[in-house]
Write a structure and sequence with these properties.
The protein is built from eight helices and no strands. The chain is mostly helical and about 230 residues long. It has two domains: about 40 residues; about 180 residues, Up-down Bundle (A middle domain of Talin 1).
Length: about 230
Amino acid sequence: MVAATKTALPTVNDPSSSMQLNNSSKQFSQALTDLRTAVTKARDTCGPLELDSALDMLYGLKDELDAFSRAVDAFELKPLPGETPEGTAQQFSATSKAVGSNMAQLLTAVNQGDEKYTGMAARSTAVALQDFTDAVRGVAATSDQPEQQHKIINSAKEVVEQAITMIEEARSASTNPQDVANQQRLAQVARDVSQALSKCVGCLPGQKDVDEAIQSINQASQVRILEIQVIY
């Protein structure tokens, strides 16, 4: 808008209007600069709060998955317009990869002792799990087998629950990165997350291509275990 205003200024013939537009543009530009500075300071100050925000999102996802299960029991879980078994399976595969990748980044951030990066990674993980939950709903809705529907919903709920535990452990580990016990618990939780995600992926045939993302969690946790052993 500031750039457009500068471009338009030469076309304003009325001196009074031109001056007013020029002054308003300068004030607006300065206000944007001040806002950018304030946002940057707020991001640095509120970084740890992103962990709390991520946890709130994940608890909300648990409630959503419980609602999906109740909808299955009531025969009310229906596909959205345009949803197909093939399309939802592809979305499930893509979101599973994103979850595995973001969780590995979260573990790496904690390992590096970067509190700000940890908060950002936790938030990204929560967003990825929201997309993952949406995909799970689609897969379940396009199935006509209640047992299969409950299986994938319950497996997804386990992934979310393990993610909650991981973020809680990440918060403890990031505030005290020298605590060996915290780091050991985090490494164990990372393995639990990997197993839960692998179990959920295994609910559908042909989803083995997400193993690479899941394996990244395992690799990150193994690095942490070796570092702990060296420290210990």
